[in-house]
């Protein structure tokens, strides 16, 4: 933070979801977002003008990344570009960003980090970002909209599911992650939600067959599964219903939560 900033702004202490305390200007003017879903959230909160840097993966809202400075990817920051932007706040995420890059940025800047495992964690993140960016009114409205959609969710007999995120090797959503919680909300039982599996386990063909899920969901991201991939999975689990799904609905934990819950409410575990 430059000397000029100290004269312009008062300082407040904030704590992030990693339970780290830092000092930031009371009214941040230059924000860099290191995570696509949180970039979309910041715009939803009315902070587009204060958002000076985003990643190359920040594709929502449409066209935003072409109007902002690209600071690299979520796991490979361009530090020279970030330094030129002179941010007074960076916002990242423990899982989506890389430890070494965050530690380097922390030497010079306030880096507020989220840590998301459940919908409740995501709601807490939205509330906290509302506080630190002075957008409490909009963040409260967003949370009320999320709560409304969540209250409409109906309890259904849970179908067993396997949610694929990668190919070569096959990787799926396991236990203790945000995708797993969203599957639960959509009326699914994740067959890899147990202590026997890591957060994102790799599976062989025979292991997939043995798990024998009723439903297989092939996510559109991070691996871009398409209709052409369904046949090879069907050979492994011939009795399963296989669907291509919008990965953003299961893994983006910002304002897109509303669209996700609306989709779950409309289709339930028929998706």
Q: How would you describe this structure in keywords?
A:
six-stranded mixed β-sheet; single chain; 12 helices; 20% strand; alpha/beta; 271 residues; 2 domains; 13 strands; disordered N terminus; five-stranded parallel β-sheet; Rossmann fold
Structure description:
The chain is of the alpha/beta class. The chain has 2 domains: 3-149, Rossmann fold (3-Layer(aba) Sandwich), CATH 3.40.50.1980; 159-270, Nitrogenase molybdenum iron protein domain (Rossmann fold), CATH 3.40.50. It is built from 12 helices and 13 strands. The model is unreliable at 1-7 (pLDDT under 50).
Low-confidence stretches: 1-7
Instruction: Please tally the helical runs, counting DSSP H or I stretches of 4 or more residues.
Output: 12
- What is the succession of H and E elements? HEEEHEHEHEHEHHEEHEEHEHEHH
Helix fraction bin: 25-40%
CATH topology of the largest domain: Rossmann fold
Strand content: 15-25%
User: Going by CATH, what is the homologous superfamily of the largest domain?
Assistant: Nitrogenase molybdenum iron protein domain
Pairing-aware structural class of the strands and helices?
alpha/beta
CATH architectural arrangement of the largest domain:
3-Layer(aba) Sandwich
In the CATH scheme, the class of the largest domain would be Alpha Beta
Tally of structural domains: 2
Total beta strand runs: 13
Gyration radius, to the nearest Å?
20 Å
| Major sheet description | 6 strands, mixed
* Overall shape: globular
């Amino acid at each position: 933070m430059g000397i000029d900033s100290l004269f312009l702004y008062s300082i407040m202490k904030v704590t992030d979801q990693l339970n780290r305390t830092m000092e930031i200007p009371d009214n941040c003017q230059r924000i860099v977002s290191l995570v696509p879903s949180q970039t979309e959230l910041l715009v939803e909160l009315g902070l587009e003008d204060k958002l000076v840097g985003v990643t190359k993966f920040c594709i929502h809202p449409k066209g935003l990344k072409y109007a902002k400075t690209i600071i690299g990817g979520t796991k490979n920051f361009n530090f020279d570009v970030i330094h030129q932007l002179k941010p007074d706040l960076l916002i990242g995420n423990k899982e989506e960003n890389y430890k070494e890059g965050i530690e380097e940025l922390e030497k010079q800047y306030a880096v507020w980090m989220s840590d998301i495992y459940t919908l409740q964690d995501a709601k807490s993140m939205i509330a906290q970002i509302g506080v630190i960016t002075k957008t409490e009114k909009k963040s409260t409205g967003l949370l009320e909209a999320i709560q409304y959609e969540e209250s409409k969710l109906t309890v259904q007999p849970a179908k067993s599911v396997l949610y694929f995120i990668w190919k070569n090797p096959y990787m799926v959503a396991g236990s203790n992650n945000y995708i797993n919680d969203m599957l639960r909300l959509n009326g699914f039982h994740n067959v890899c939600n147990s202590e026997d599996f890591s957060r994102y386990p790799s599976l062989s063909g025979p292991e997939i067959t043995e798990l024998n899920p009723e439903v297989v969901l092939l996510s559109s991201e991070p691996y871009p599964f398409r209709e052409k991939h369904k046949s090879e999975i069907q050979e492994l689990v011939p009795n399963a219903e296989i669907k291509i799904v919008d990965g953003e609905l299961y893994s983006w934990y910002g304002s897109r939560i509303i669209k996700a819950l609306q989709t779950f409410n409309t289709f339930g575990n028929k998706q």
